[in-house]
Amino acid sequence: MKGRDLIYFWLVIIISFFGGLFLFDSHFDAYSDLITYLSIMIGFKISSLSILFSSPLRKKLWDTNNVKPYQTELHRIKDYYKHSIIFEVISVIIVFIIPKCLNIDLLCGIIHLGKQSVVLPILTGSTYCLYKTCTDLFRIFTFPTNY
Length: 147
Hints:
- The protein has helices at residues 3-23, 31-53, 57-63, 73-97, 119-142, and strands spanning 103-106, 111-114.
- It is mainly alpha-helical.
- The protein is elongated, with a radius of gyration of 18 Å.
- The protein has a two-stranded antiparallel ribbon with strand order 1-2.
- Helix 1 (3-23) packs antiparallel against helix 5, helix 2 runs antiparallel to helix 4 (73-97) and helix 4 (73-97) runs antiparallel to helix 5.
- The protein has five helices and two strands.
- The model has no long low-confidence stretch (mean pLDDT 81).
- It has one domain (3-18, 30-140).
- The two termini are 22 Å apart.
- Helix content is 68%, strand content 5%.
Protein backbone atom coordinates (compact mmCIF):
# COMPACT_ATOMS: atom_id res chain seq x y z
CA MET A 1 0.00 0.00 0.00
CA LYS A 2 1.12 3.48 -0.71
CA GLY A 3 -0.02 7.02 -0.15
CA ARG A 4 -3.39 7.53 1.46
CA ASP A 5 -4.03 3.81 1.78
CA LEU A 6 -0.98 3.39 3.99
CA ILE A 7 -1.91 6.39 6.13
CA TYR A 8 -5.41 4.99 6.69
CA PHE A 9 -3.93 1.59 7.51
CA TRP A 10 -1.70 3.02 10.22
CA LEU A 11 -4.57 5.11 11.61
CA VAL A 12 -6.67 1.96 11.90
CA ILE A 13 -3.81 0.14 13.66
CA ILE A 14 -3.14 2.97 16.13
CA ILE A 15 -6.79 3.57 16.99
CA SER A 16 -7.46 -0.14 17.42
CA PHE A 17 -4.38 -0.50 19.64
CA PHE A 18 -5.78 2.02 22.09
CA GLY A 19 -9.22 0.41 21.85
CA GLY A 20 -7.70 -3.01 22.46
CA LEU A 21 -6.11 -1.81 25.69
CA PHE A 22 -9.59 -1.46 27.18
CA LEU A 23 -11.33 -4.31 25.30
CA PHE A 24 -9.12 -7.29 26.16
CA ASP A 25 -7.95 -8.15 29.65
CA SER A 26 -4.96 -10.21 30.74
CA HIS A 27 -7.09 -13.38 30.85
CA PHE A 28 -7.60 -13.46 27.07
CA ASP A 29 -6.52 -16.85 25.76
CA ALA A 30 -7.76 -17.31 22.17
CA TYR A 31 -4.41 -16.91 20.45
CA SER A 32 -4.72 -20.21 18.61
CA ASP A 33 -7.99 -18.96 17.08
CA LEU A 34 -6.25 -15.76 16.00
CA ILE A 35 -3.41 -17.71 14.37
CA THR A 36 -5.95 -19.96 12.60
CA TYR A 37 -7.78 -16.90 11.29
CA LEU A 38 -4.56 -15.35 10.01
CA SER A 39 -3.48 -18.62 8.39
CA ILE A 40 -6.79 -18.84 6.54
CA MET A 41 -6.45 -15.24 5.39
CA ILE A 42 -2.91 -15.84 4.14
CA GLY A 43 -4.05 -18.96 2.25
CA PHE A 44 -7.00 -17.11 0.72
CA LYS A 45 -4.81 -14.27 -0.48
CA ILE A 46 -2.15 -16.53 -1.96
CA SER A 47 -4.82 -18.57 -3.77
CA SER A 48 -6.63 -15.53 -5.14
CA LEU A 49 -3.35 -13.95 -6.17
CA SER A 50 -2.33 -17.04 -8.12
CA ILE A 51 -5.73 -17.21 -9.83
CA LEU A 52 -5.55 -13.53 -10.75
CA PHE A 53 -2.03 -13.68 -12.14
CA SER A 54 -2.80 -16.78 -14.22
CA SER A 55 -5.88 -15.22 -15.80
CA PRO A 56 -5.97 -13.37 -19.12
CA LEU A 57 -7.07 -10.26 -17.23
CA ARG A 58 -3.46 -9.75 -16.11
CA LYS A 59 -2.40 -8.20 -19.43
CA LYS A 60 -5.34 -5.82 -19.41
CA LEU A 61 -4.50 -4.75 -15.86
CA TRP A 62 -0.89 -4.20 -16.90
CA ASP A 63 -1.99 -1.96 -19.78
CA THR A 64 -4.33 0.10 -17.59
CA ASN A 65 -2.73 3.21 -16.14
CA ASN A 66 -3.82 4.29 -12.72
CA VAL A 67 -3.58 7.37 -10.58
CA LYS A 68 -0.42 7.93 -8.61
CA PRO A 69 1.31 6.48 -6.60
CA TYR A 70 0.73 3.24 -8.55
CA GLN A 71 1.91 2.78 -12.14
CA THR A 72 -0.81 0.37 -13.30
CA GLU A 73 -3.76 -1.52 -11.85
CA LEU A 74 -1.56 -4.61 -11.68
CA HIS A 75 0.96 -2.74 -9.53
CA ARG A 76 -1.84 -1.56 -7.26
CA ILE A 77 -3.18 -5.06 -6.70
CA LYS A 78 0.33 -6.44 -6.22
CA ASP A 79 1.04 -3.84 -3.54
CA TYR A 80 -2.23 -4.61 -1.72
CA TYR A 81 -1.47 -8.32 -1.68
CA LYS A 82 2.16 -7.84 -0.70
CA HIS A 83 1.30 -5.52 2.15
CA SER A 84 -1.49 -7.69 3.53
CA ILE A 85 0.45 -10.97 3.36
CA ILE A 86 3.51 -9.41 5.01
CA PHE A 87 1.33 -7.84 7.72
CA GLU A 88 -0.37 -11.15 8.48
CA VAL A 89 2.86 -13.16 8.57
CA ILE A 90 4.45 -10.60 10.90
CA SER A 91 1.30 -10.72 13.04
CA VAL A 92 1.60 -14.49 13.45
CA ILE A 93 5.25 -14.09 14.42
CA ILE A 94 4.36 -11.37 16.95
CA VAL A 95 1.72 -13.58 18.55
CA PHE A 96 4.32 -16.32 18.93
CA ILE A 97 7.12 -14.07 20.19
CA ILE A 98 5.42 -11.84 22.78
CA PRO A 99 5.33 -13.74 26.07
CA LYS A 100 1.99 -14.18 27.77
CA CYS A 101 3.44 -13.24 31.13
CA LEU A 102 4.27 -9.74 29.92
CA ASN A 103 1.66 -7.71 31.77
CA ILE A 104 2.33 -4.09 32.59
CA ASP A 105 -0.40 -2.34 34.54
CA LEU A 106 -0.99 1.29 33.68
CA LEU A 107 -3.29 3.81 35.36
CA CYS A 108 -3.67 1.87 38.62
CA GLY A 109 -4.45 -1.44 36.94
CA ILE A 110 -7.10 -0.14 34.54
CA ILE A 111 -4.98 -0.77 31.44
CA HIS A 112 -3.04 -4.01 31.00
CA LEU A 113 -0.28 -3.75 28.42
CA GLY A 114 0.67 -7.24 27.27
CA LYS A 115 0.17 -9.86 24.60
CA GLN A 116 -3.58 -9.24 24.53
CA SER A 117 -2.90 -5.62 23.47
CA VAL A 118 -2.00 -6.68 19.91
CA VAL A 119 -5.15 -8.75 19.25
CA LEU A 120 -7.45 -5.93 18.13
CA PRO A 121 -4.81 -4.19 15.95
CA ILE A 122 -4.09 -7.51 14.23
CA LEU A 123 -7.77 -8.18 13.61
CA THR A 124 -8.56 -4.70 12.35
CA GLY A 125 -5.38 -4.47 10.27
CA SER A 126 -6.13 -7.79 8.62
CA THR A 127 -9.73 -6.78 8.01
CA TYR A 128 -8.66 -3.47 6.49
CA CYS A 129 -6.23 -5.26 4.15
CA LEU A 130 -8.95 -7.73 3.14
CA TYR A 131 -11.38 -4.87 2.57
CA LYS A 132 -8.98 -2.94 0.32
CA THR A 133 -8.00 -6.03 -1.67
CA CYS A 134 -11.55 -7.32 -2.14
CA THR A 135 -12.94 -3.90 -2.99
CA ASP A 136 -10.36 -3.53 -5.74
CA LEU A 137 -10.95 -7.06 -7.03
CA PHE A 138 -14.74 -6.64 -7.04
CA ARG A 139 -14.36 -3.38 -8.94
CA ILE A 140 -12.14 -5.06 -11.52
CA PHE A 141 -14.19 -8.21 -11.99
CA THR A 142 -17.62 -6.57 -12.03
CA PHE A 143 -16.68 -4.00 -14.67
CA PRO A 144 -14.26 -5.81 -17.02
CA THR A 145 -15.27 -3.65 -19.97
CA ASN A 146 -13.26 -0.76 -18.52
CA TYR A 147 -10.03 -2.71 -18.98
